[in-house]
Amino acid sequence: MQIARVALDVPLHRFFDYLVPVGEALSTTDIGRRVRVPFGRRSKIGVIVDLPSSSDHPLAQLKVLEEILRDLPALPDDWFRLTEFCAAYYQAPLGEVMLSTLPAGLRRIDPPKARTSQRAVKSPPVQEAPELTDEQRVALAAITGAAPGFNAYLLHGVTGSGKTEVYLRLIARALAAGQQALLLVPEINLTPQLEKRVAARFPDAGLVSLHSELTEAARSRNWRAALEGRARIILGTRLAVFTPLPELGLIVVDEEHDPSFKQQDGMRYSARDVAVFRARERGIQIVLGSATPSLESWANATDSRTRGRYTLLTLYQRAVENARLPTVQRIDTRLEKLQDGLSGALLMAIEKRLARGEQSLVFLNRRGYAPVLACAACGWISRCTRCAANLVLHLADGRLRCHHCGFESRVPKNCPTCGNQDIHPFGRGTQRLEEVLAARFPQARILRVDRDSAKSRKQWEAMVEKIHAGEADILVGTQMLAKGHDFPKLTLVGAIGPDAALFAADWRAAERLFAQLMQVAGRAGRADLAGEVLIQTQFPEHPLYAALVRHDYPAFAAAQLKEREQAGFPPYAYQAMLRAEAPKMAEALAFLAAARAWPQAETHQDVMLYDPVPMRLARRANFERGQLLVESPSRRALQSFLTEWLRFVDAIKAPSRLRWHLEVDPLEF
Ligand code: ADP
Ligand code: ZN
Ligand code: ZN
């Protein structure tokens, strides 16, 4: 009897053997097909990974598989290598990884019937390609002139510098060569414009999109079009990085720095990193584009030790003639009393826009940073004495804790440097901004744009329309507004309270702040109206703002990388985070302590295990969370440590309600 080895969506590091029903003969071309198999008392969908000649289990114990699903081509070879890489790198069970990359509709026993009526695709007017600027031509030539094979490019250019046009040219070239192109974007909600633009340029390429807002049926349909090669361009969010593409010839990752490329539950992968692996594995070109690249990518393109890993290409100018970069100015908020968080200069600037019928954006960095203690008198901040991170204030038990290394101390009564008794958490938010603006400018139409007011893509599009139509005067928003849209009447951006990110315990906060401010500045004044950006800050001399005023990302990145290197933070170290949550913090911490007490840890000299840290806020109600950081200067050393260590951690007897997971390359602390 023939044996089929099947990957199933179960949290075990193994496959399952089944007998092939009599009358069926499978060949190696069936490896990669979906099957329905009995599992426990139910049936499950799995993927054939092998046709072994023998099993470790007695044949008499093997069950017979129920059905071989031949509705789709078998998954291609490189999809196997991709999922194998992810399982190994992110320390996740391979079967779970494999099945999780399939659209839900294709891994269900009883998929809902697809509606027969396909959405009629309105074909947009075909758009002619513009003449390239000199800079675009140089960048493009560097890519098209390279020898075939794997090459990674970092395309750096401010918003409007014409990066997308370069992507479109590369896509055109891939299509002409009979290849498929994969274009990844951080959030499809925010980029319907891009979808239109690609469709207008390539009306016959069977463009499909893949993202989580599609119905199950639509996602299956698009995924299938990709696998069958009918779709030549695939535009998608992070999950699209796993789409099987038999003729893949080009990958583009737009806004490559965006944290949305990181999956935050299940297998916590970085779609950008997976994309780079995929390109290398297939021997094709990948372009990472951004106005503010991640420091990881920037180091890969510029650090002398890694130089050559990525090729840096720069677009310095805006592509459209006469489009100037906005002027950025700092407003020193130490010099005047703010009116409900707003400076006189900003209020005046808004008033001017109202008088001229232009739009203003009041940009609020509303991210809830863990509070760090600061002294306004002398500038002292609560730093960790053991590492370069800032200490986080835990009000509940009056402690300061390092979320990096686990160090903790009592909250001081007064400033350790100058004795000032009035020390408090840095950067309290301005929640009432909308009301304050309404009271101040009763005649203005104010529109709040954030995740709550633009939950669905429809709501978002309606808002964008409203802004375009000039039906709003003052926009109040978070970084959501910063992405992917041109608002021709928007000429003023005021950034409120950005300082909190400068001294956050999360040492990536400055990188994110710079990216957001650059991006939001890119919104102001395109085409013929000059834009102005006003930054309200208590630290106008801070190098981050100084670089921002000059639109000088390279200077900012160089300074940040130097700090990171001195502190031993990524990209100069590789990290993984073990997190545990349980009804009682003590249980979570006990589990982490048990994990930390792995006797073999000593044999991994390149790997550092820090102390477990209780987190301030439990993520879910009734659960308290702790975490434990693992760090190494060598990626390989970290990987081999994790593989062995997790076998030990898996075997720890934990309370039944305790949950834990490991995240490789964590972005948040
Ligand atoms: P980015 O992706 O860097 O933000 P885009 O490619 O979207 O930049 O270009 C910004 C604007 O400039 C768009 O309106 C685009 O149509 C236009 N554009 C891009 N390249 C050219 C060009 N070579 N000539 C004229 N306009 C261009
Ligand atoms: Zn002080
Ligand atoms: Zn520390």
Overview of the molecule:
- The chain is of the alpha/beta class and 669 residues long.
- The strands form six sheets. It has a seven-stranded parallel β-sheet with strand order 8-9-7-10-11-6-12, with helices on both faces.
- Strand 16 and strand 17 (399-402) form a beta hairpin.
- Helix 3 packs parallel to helix 4 (163-176) and helix 13 (543-549) runs antiparallel to helix 14.
- The model has no long low-confidence stretch (mean pLDDT 90).
- The structure holds adenosine-5'-diphosphate and zinc ion (2 copies).
- The site of one zinc ion has 8 residues, from loops.
Summed up:
This protein has 16 helices and 28 strands.
State the CATH topology of the largest domain. Answer: Rossmann fold
| Name of the CATH architecture of the largest domain | 3-Layer(aba) Sandwich
Give the N-terminus to C-terminus distance in angstroms. Answer: 52 Å
Percent of residues in beta strands: 15-25%
Give the integer mean of the pLDDT values. 90
Which class of the largest domain in CATH terms?
Alpha Beta
Order of adjacent strands in the largest pleated sheet: 8-9-7-10-11-6-12
Bound molecules: adenosine-5'-diphosphate, zinc ion
Structural class: alpha/beta
